[in-house]
Write a structure and sequence with these properties.
The complex is a heterodimer of chains A (314) and B (251). Chain A is α/β, with parallel strands linked by helices and 314 residues long. Chain A contains eleven helices and 15 strands. In chain A, strands 6-7-8-3-9-10-15 form a seven-stranded mixed β-sheet, with helices on both faces. In chain A, helix 4 runs antiparallel to helix 5 (131-142). The N and C termini of chain A lie far apart (47 Å). Chain B is mainly alpha-helical. Chain B is globular. Chain B has helices at residues 2-13, 16-38, 41-51, 56-79, 82-92, 94-98, 105-137, 143-171, 176-194, 196-204, 209-219, 222-246. The chains are: A alpha/beta (314), B mainly alpha (251). The A-B interface holds A 46, 49-53, 70-75, 77, 79, 81, 83-90, 94, 97-104 and B 1-4, 6-7, 10-11, 14, 88-89, 91-94, 96-97, 99-104, 107, 246, 248-249.
Chain lengths: 314, 251
């Protein structure tokens, strides 16, 4: 069962458009939502939560339409934003009073336990909290009403590695429960590589890539070759190319085939960040790119184009 | 929804010291004014004022009543400033939190209107208590008239707040001051337009008919203002819900 099912969502702001966005998040998974700043991650999250109206398409959460049952469905959704959103004069106790009168399933014991665990003083104004403490406070709120879905928008950005790691540990604990799902938006791909099961990659308001993280990492590789060797590579295998230290680096979409076809060439493991950067490179060099899923990769950059662009870049 | 009302009161709590100071000051000034009118300098001046053909008994009572209305108005106005909540919510970015809470847009708007109603009810209760004391201390104004004045004041504030909430939702964050000014201007313009001829006569012909009408409205016909306030409230609420549904994220 898919906990989130977005179908053909379009939202046009004039200067930015969420263009026919479709993807699904399976129950019990951690879905990493990646993309550079301004790619449309926050807009998509707002569309999922029905916090903005969409021009077309529909959003199903727990199999129900958010437009119709949004208020009820949000009882089971915990949300963490990159900015806190609570008034600076509020203390943990104030937030508890407010939230227990909003959420039916609010558990103040769980909330204060989280505050204790995160070393957050319940009587201190949250305006005096550090960024890490503010994020932890939001997580405590999100986890204290029995949410089955956690949606987080850049929760780890601007945090030091220790706090980030601590937060990733909390997310891991959260998804131990089979019916708990996380949609985690971030441009810090390293965090997602550690925790995500699924990856959705958005750029310029369009879904560029989505699928199982391990499949994507397994399929993609960085082929390193000399400039004149680029023309030898099958065009269907090339995602995009860019200049490397000693020649050209090419992101290929079928590592195994490449190894068989070009045994003399070096093919390295691609990270999520590499995949993201090469796909963005491909998008920004105005090459046609349709939605590409992890299991069904199609429409590669032509060999001539890749060769030409690599030469230009070099 | 209850939680959002509590949150609004938490925001207003920030103004508590300011409110208590205004309340204490206006109460002290009101009592001093009454004592002076009864036994002090104002009482001494009463005879000469009554002898003055330009003031007369009606003028004296009107001045006293208007002064008291101001004292009743101040504490209520101090808490009934809804633009303050919008400003604070905007500063904190609370609208993004509110948008993901299990409440509908209608409930979010309703919470704001319930907050204003609660503050006005609290203000009316306080003013009734004050009126009870003041009416015992002076013969210039009776308790029944003061009750009318209190409801008139509350109605004015209701109209002001209803306009203010609608404008804040319509124009979005950062326009709270503009909403305050525009709401005040709208009320003043409507008042002047409604009594244009009488205002003109008062200014150019020294005619005190407008003063008599205002006093009549405040002391005996507050129900007219209450009806206008309720109609404004209903219209403002309906329009605010429609706008907030269309423009998500403003409340």
């Amino acid at each position: 069962m898919n906990v989130i099912d977005i179908k053909n969502v379009t939202k046009d702001y004039g200067d930015f458009k969420l263009d026919n966005v479709s993807f699904a998040v399976p129950e019990g998974s951690v879905c990493g939502f990646i993309g550079q700043n301004g790619a449309g991650k926050t807009t998509t999250i707002k569309a999922i939560l029905d916090a903005i109206g969409v021009d077309s398409g529909n959003v199903l959460v727990f199999g129900e339409d958010m437009k119709i049952n949004g208020a009820r469905l949000r009882e089971d959704i915990g949300v963490v934003f990159d900015e806190m959103g609570f008034h600076e004069f509020m203390t943990g106790k104030d937030i508890n009073i407010m939230m227990k009168n909003i959420y039916k399933n609010w558990d103040e014991k769980v909330f204060f336990d989280y505050l204790k665990r995160f070393s957050l003083p319940s009587k201190k104004k949250c305006g005096d909290f550090s960024r890490g403490m503010r994020m932890k406070l939001q997580i405590a709120v999100a986890l204290s009403h029995g949410a089955k879905l956690l949606i987080m928008d850049e929760p780890t950005s601007g945090l030091d590695p220790i706090v980030r790691n601590e937060m990733l540990q909390i997310f891991r604990e959260y998804v131990i429960e089979e019916d708990h799902t996380i949609l985690l938006s971030s441009h810090i791909t390293g965090d997602l590589e550690k925790i995500a099961d699924e990856v959705v990659f958005i750029d310029g308001g369009k879904i560029v890539l989505n699928g199982n993280k391990d499949d994507l990492l397994e399929k993609h590789g960085i082929l390193k070759c000399k400039k004149d060797e680029l023309s030898l590579i099958s065009e269907s295998l090339i995602v995009s190319a860019q200049p490397g230290v000693y020649g050209v680096e090419v992101l290929v979409n079928d590592k195994k085939s490449c190894k068989k076809l070009y045994p003399e060439m070096i093919i390295e493991q691609a990270s999520l960040e590499d995949i993201m950067l090469f796909y963005i490179n491909r998008m920004h060099t105005n090459v046609a790119c349709s939605n590409i899923s992890g299991s069904d990769i199609s429409e590669g950059m032509s060999r001539e184009q890749a060769s030409k662009e690599a030469e230009e870049a070099l | 929804m209850k939680g959002l009302i509590i949150k609004d009161f938490m925001v207003l709590r920030k103004n508590l010291i300011e409110f208590v100071m205004i309340l204490s000051l206006s109460s002290v000034v009101a009592i001093m004014f009454i004592l002076s009118a009864q036994y002090g300098n104002l009482a001494s001046a009463k005879e000469s004022l009554l002898a003055d053909p330009q003031v007369g008994e009606f003028g004296l009572i009107s001045m006293t009543s208007l002064a008291l209305t101001c004292y009743l108005f101040v504490p209520m106005a101090a808490v009934a400033d809804m633009s303050y909540i919008f400003r604070e919510d905007g500063k904190a970015g609370f609208s993004s939190v509110a948008a993901v809470l299990p409440v509908t847009v209608r409930q979010r708007v309703s919470a704001r209107y319930i907050t204003i109603l609660c503050t006005l009810v609290a203000g009316v209760i306080f003013d009734i208590f004050a009126a009870l004391i003041i009416s015992r201390m002076t013969e210039l104004i009776v308790f029944g008239e003061m009750i009318n004045m209190i409801f008139a004041v509350a109605s004015f504030l209701m109209i002001y707040s209803s306009l203010c909430i609608f404008e804040c939702i319509l124009w979005g964050q950062g326009k709270e001051e503009v909403a305050m000014i525009v709401s005040t201007v709208i009320i003043m313009v409507v008042m002047v337009v409604c009594g244009y001829q009488k205002f003109k006569n008062a200014i150019f012909n020294n005619d005190d008919q407008i003063m008599k009408d205002i006093m009549e409205l405040l002391k005996h016909k507050a129900y007219i203002l209450v009806i206008i306030a309720l109609v404004t409230l209903i219209l403002s609420y309906t329009c605010s819900v429609a706008v907030a549904n269309r423009k998500r994220g403003v409340i």
